[in-house]
Amino acid sequence: MGWLDQLAEHVEDLRRAGRLQQNGCSAQALPILDAVLATATDRMTLAYALVQRFGALINLGRVAELAAAMAAAAEAVREVPDPYLRGQMHAFAALGAHLQSHLDRGVTHLVQASRALAAVPDRDAETAWGWHDLAMAYSYLGFHGQALTAIEQAREVGASAGLAPEVFAAPGIRLRNAVSLDHWGDTDGCLRVLRDIDAELYRYLATDQLRPGSRAVYGYALARRAALGEPTEADATRWLTGGGDSVRTRDLRHLGAVCLTIAAGKPERALSMLEAVPVSAEVLGAPEPARLRSICHARAGDHAAAHTADRYAFRLAAQRIDQLRDGYLDGVAARLDAQETQRDPHRYGDETLTDPLTGLPNRRALEHYVDALLARGGRAAVGVCDIVGFTTVNMRHGRHCGDLVLQRIAGVLARVMRRGDFVARFAGDEFVLILPGAGPHHAAEVSRRISAAAAAENWQILVPGTPIGLACGWSEVGANGRGLSAALAAAAGSRKPT
């Protein structure tokens, strides 16, 4: 029994929508999924349909709708803790992050998808397609080795479900690998991979196993070889027709026509075609149009312009490596901040009094601390800080990135506190600061330090396009008999951006 067979409703509708998506017909699958969502009541059915709808929107390039679709799918999957659904959702989320140029977020989803799919106990067709979609996500984000490993896993799981290995040919993975080699200057390596792709086309034609969605990929591999000056026996134009309604297919057709125009000895015309129709930077990578311009200039005899275009293509390829390095360093910094707060047992107590995400004292620890302070007759300034922009972070970037922001803010607050001060995570994105013996002047100084430290953080690397700030308000505890609840209410009411 396959995974879909366990659903209570609309199994055949969902199976039909899945076949349409596999054949590159997401526009036809979308109304079927919408009809299921309008009538289904079973939570598992709804979660599956929402995840597949998210995937259809990605295939169609409807970027403006992705944030809402992902939020709906993620919420539904959380209510149905199924590892296959979680893996499939994260694989699509990685592709969505790629379309939105959020490389660091995409990498996070890749890891989560791989772990979830590895935990699926059943080796059925749906799980095999989950590995296939993860392989696509790895490939689009530039992790070609991991993509090949994931597609082999798809073939292995698919074989257990009776699917032929040819179903998971995934020529797009090797095509992106080939053009990536060319972007880095290894044109010979690119041609070797393109030859392998073209040889595979004939093998699959002989067995009648060619998927419609792969037509444009094979066509582009043929056209790209021709643009590099290596003639092919097959007619690339034939394969660049049909193949579905995805953004990928549309762009491959256009760039394939550019390559064939170069091969026909019309480089000026090819340059005009490149300028006339913009293509997504996410299909074959941002460097591909620049590399094609270089080939055009070289064919036209303008070697200075060809060299300039090649350098630009190389620089675009290197930018992704820089983004990965920055994201890696930023994630490590957030984890170190959390670890530092967890290493101070005298300050933070045992686990029952500690917030597990940030390592800071929790609400219970805060209440114990203030009770002891008041019992000694002490008084303190009380600050309530919350994160400006945190809701947007969770909507645009996902809860994992939200967790990283919380850890980073916890590290910022812990670093700027005076010796003897107390900082706790109170709830959600709200933090409470206790400054024993401090008055308004000290509180204002702490606010200035918090503002400077938060502004110095590189939030664009962690959550691109989402500004992060802190809003703080201050009150006093112990003054005129004021207790913690009243102090917190007063501080929360006076919050303003630091």
UniProtKB/TrEMBL annotation:
Database matches in SMART domains: GGDEF
Stored InterPro entries: Diguanylate_Cyclase, GGDEF_dom, Nucleotide_cyclase, Rev_trsase/Diguanyl_cyclase, TPR-like_helical_dom_sf
Signal peptide start-end: none
Organism domain of life: Bacteria
One Pfam short name: GGDEF
GO molecular function: diguanylate cyclase activity
Cross-referenced PROSITE patterns: GGDEF (PS50887)
Domain GGDEF: 378-498
Protein name: Diguanylate cyclase (GGDEF)-like protein
Organism: Actinoplanes teichomyceticus
